[in-house]
Amino acid sequence: MRIMRSALTVAAGRAARRLARLRGKGRGGSAFPGLVVERIDAGFLARTLEQLPLGVVVVSGTNGKTTTTKILVELLRSQGLRVFTNPTGSNFVRGVAASLLTEVDARGRLDADIAVLELDEAHAVHFVRQVRPRASLLLNVMRDQLDRFGEIDHTANLLHSVATATTELVVLNADDPRLAAPRFTADLTARVEGFGIGERLRRVFLSDDDLRRAEQEGPAMTEDAGLGTEQPEDAESAGTRLEAIDGRRASLRVGGAEHEVEFALPGVHNMLNATGALALASSLLGERADLDSLLHALSQVRAAFGRGEMLEVEGRALELALVKNPAGFRMSLLSADTAPAETMIAINDDYADGRDMSWLWDVDFSALRASGVHVVSGVRAFDMALRLRYDEVIVDGVETDLGAALGSLIAASRESGRPMRIFCTYTAMLAVRAQLSRITDVEVVL
Amino acid sequence: MTEQPAPAPDLTPVPTPALRPARADAPPLRILQLYPSEMNIYGDWGNTLTLMRRAQWSGFEVELLAHEVGDELPEQVDLVVAGGGQDSGQVRIAADLLAHGGAIRDWAEQDVPMLAVCGSYQLFGHVFVPATGDTADEPLTGISLLDVETRGSSKRLIGNLTIETERFGPVVGYENHSGLTTLGEGCVHLGTVRPFGPDDSRAAGNNGNDGSEGAVHREVIGTYLHGSVLPKNPAMADRLLAAAVRHRVGEDAYTAPDLEGIVTQRARDIAMSRPR
Q: Residues with Cβ < 8 Å from A352, sequence gap 6 or more?
């Protein structure tokens, strides 16, 4: 009966997908087939994922979900596992159902050992009501999309629901004041492990709560990044730690020993994401894990779509950095190459970007004073220009049209010979990528 | 397959501010931030930064002070900024704020200008009565500087918002709150909510019922608008600064920096045209 039921659902879902593609000019369209599946067979998701011998891993948090999921998938694959994952951008429950449709056979069977799913915080709660994850990896709780979620504490509550539903292992960021709080971990039934940063890196990583304090009181106060009294002794609880960074080289402490990894992935925040993924993979697999091959896989992972991607235009480098909240933007500014670059910032305010521009005022842009900004663009380009003015960063000009701004950036780079970097919000990134694909070789996703 | 990129367009220039000569004669303006670590959730730093920079561009030095829970209040200040916070932050600061309420009210009566946004606006009133199920389960007593009171509701009022004000003309910002604030006789509203699109019931302001937004008493402004509110509404920033300078040097000596031009105007116009 179960197979019969799934077979019908798969057939109907795939028909819905064909229909969506016919009507939708071949773009996106994971929501509609997902909706059809949800309506006709509410148990499809749970029934399909429950077949997996090693269960389901959920990755959630404000920043770094996509890249961390990609890293974790690569780590598990390096251990010989067949991994099912949801593609970029479909981190809603319906998106997962839709991506299952493309992977299962006609009888609804999934050819995989384990699933690693990136889930948006709010949808993760819906998901765990249907499928209890074996493990979850909780990255951080930062201010993001407050126009959607209301408050940061609310977001922490969403992740708490995920943690309580998790059956075996919760790996969380031991430096995040909300995730590491005793009230977050007290009632969890799963084993809890931490990942985080070592003492030497405390100055680099600041939580949202510390950002303002650090800016106002100067760097001395960030020395111990006072995460408050609720922070656990990280030497004990952060089992896997990022200890040192030198360019793309990082030192990771795993199981009491330090290991060097040369990352292909740009960005210090991604090194911390990698630390979390490594913590989960090694703990979940236990004795099955081979540390050397995990570390090798870590060094090979490349950036996910639009997350610190390195592209090339006219033979010069172009770095594309997705920014969506203050902490993420700050990290991107930190890891932006210190060499002078022609810089563009593109800010849209569609639903997926966040409608409220307040977050731009929680980022310190003074790091851009030295090189200046060539052009600001996007729907809210003038907001960004105003923001930069108040941090006394010189801006060559404003061009709300993204294509025209990109043309101007490339021309400026041609003139100066400098590389280019673009900081952009989500929908601005999609538009910039589409423009770039006309002039350079860009991997097409979605 | 590759196309030539479009020729470089003419960018709209972003002029840098024309600085006014330093006022060597004037002592620094003392700007006090109330609880910047607890109450800073919606770009509240943007308001402080705007005040600080505009003062500097106008030739005044600024001394930036911060008051956190447990600190002594400074004896003398010229401007107070207080931001929005989460419910939990509000609970953590409420008792401390109340303990200093007398001093802050005295400043207000001496025409020290103040900007209180969202959570601080609520606590500048008489009381915040949380809705059932909120983080705070008991009413938070405010400092009664503004004759307003706030009741929590189960619905969050979120979105772009433009208000019409007598003092500053149209003021644009973004609201995100669940408290509903009503004004008493002792203060006036900052402005009236501009109907939003075809469905004018959606923009809320103080409470979503009477069409008012914010509250004003002497030089004190309480408002739900962030965004941050001051950068795109420089008239409001300049009024606060003019009062601060008057408080500091005893005369009207503030001249706004000459820099608005097209950048501020376009940022305002676009913000006013965006969906809720």
A: A426, A427
